[in-house]
Amino acid sequence: MAHLSLSRISKRFGDFDALKDVSLDIASGEFICLLGASGCGKTTLLRLIAGLDRQDTGTLTLDGADLSAVPCHRRNIGMVFQSLALFPHLDVGGNIAYGLRLRGAAPADSETEVQRLLELVGLPGLARRAVSALSGGQRQRVAIARALALQPAIFLMDEPFSALDAGLRDQMQTEVKALQRQLGVTTVFVTHDQREAMALADRVVVMHDGRIEQADAPQTLYAQPATRFVAEFFGETNLLDLEIDADAVHFGEQSLGVPAGTLSTQRGRCTIAVRPEALGLSTDQTNAALRGTYVSGQYLGALWEGCVDVDGTLLQCRCFANQAPHLAPGDSVYLNWDAADAWVLPA
Amino acid sequence: MSTASRADTATAYALGLGTLLTLGVFFVVPLIFMVIVSFYKPDPMAFYKEAFVWDNYKTFFSSFYYTVSLRSLWSSLLGAVLVVVIAFPAVLVIVDLSRRWQLFWVILLLSLMCLSEVIVGFSWLILLSESAGLPRLFGALGIWENPRSLSPSFGAMMVGMVTIGFSIVALILFPQAARRDRSLEEAAMTLGTPPWRVFFTVLLPTFRTTLLSVTLTMFVYLLGVFVMPTMLGRPKDWTMTVIISDKALGDANLPLGAALAVVMLIVTTVILLLSMLTTRGATGRSTR
User: Fold this and answer.
1) Are residues A228 and A252 in the same domain?
2) Quick check: A72 and B190 CB within 8 A?
3) Is residue B30 part of a domain?
4) ipTM, 2 dp
């Protein structure tokens, strides 16, 4: 297990700033997910940790030792690549034993270790099989076993499940999470899939435009997004620009009554994030409710999602399908929410 | 199958058939003619006289021609291996350069390929000569005490062969080297492999089939090279191609020239078939 620390890391490719002053501490045994859209810098950050690229500025330490000048092959990093990068000229056992043999392990010892790792990833007895003869899921497992063979200080994974179908991806997520818990290895996982990040990570690092927007537990990110970007990127949300004074909360021309909850201390203009499932939809007028016009709704199996137009702003609401209201487009509706479910975005 | 796709298939077949017929007329027919002539008797007045004799083939197995054919195979194989050994690392370097420098090298390689063998041979003849070339430079620098011409020699012939083969091999390998999955090399490095060792443990094995097939292609190509052995090699370095030309045109002994060519064709075909079988076996096997 190892503690990784990144301090003020920057990286530029030509005119493009891939990373801008990134700092992050990763605790020993922690499972971190780097989450963001394409081009946000998450893979660049992973490659810097691996030593495949070198940062322009900043320091990177592992258990207090500076890694900045340590070449990739001396970093004791295990990495699973997006393409998996299994060696086509070696069979399954050869791939897993590659690093062990390179370090001079005796053939019998590496054979034993290969068997142990194959058992660990659920592929016993496949050591002699060609990698080209494996299924997608099996190839993933071999890549994981190969990366873990050298008992790395840090385990890195670069969108390893992006090419798998949904069912297999869910299964692999469960297995990787269990494996990481079992081995306790410090893990950095890159993904653009927020569901995957929420399912796997102890802490999710949301990246945007080469910077870290927020690094927190999934629950915290979801309930208390630090920025407008995180609120919009991490799960669906409704953003409402409010005007608050001592007597009332205003949304455009509508009044929502006396400020309560987190809004009671706010004054002036502010933006709140309310998740779709926190919005209550009703045809009956209640106090502190927004009046709007029902636009459309759709059944999504267990859930129902509706869209309401409130003075030109479209708001999403969500509930269980069996609780869905019977509405027709154009109906007048009212939206309300608990004060505790409204998160005030920092200015 | 739709009518349109049926028409496309028919067009493709027609084009393919046309190519095959052209090959038949311009390659197979002369080949058959060559085999027939190889059984004729030589006639200095008319190149050959119709007959059916084995004398020309018996002549091949005399020590001179036997030795020349072995020497041809050896020099072509050595040349092919040298070309690939030099060109492969060079291509790996070129594809990692910036686009501008890649373009520069591709244009340079294409230019080199467009040069006539005679021009390349003549350039090396000058460069290796005692009066104006490298020996004189080495002499002036004091590196070589008694400089003398480096050509004609087996080494000079090899240099010429490698020069004309280099651009061909480099341009054949270029697309594959540029498109290769670099994550394989990166994976090897994360597994503790120093960069210099990645070449031997990952790059060479993954390119093995390609390199074998390029070496075979170059081997066949160099077997047919005529100018380099005559310009840069000594008479004892001359390959079978030079001897065949000498017999057929110089001595006006077309039947012997044809017989020598047929034997070389058979030997080369057998070598290629054996190599292909070996390569297929190696590709099918998974190694540890």
Assistant:
1) no
2) yes
3) no
4) 0.84
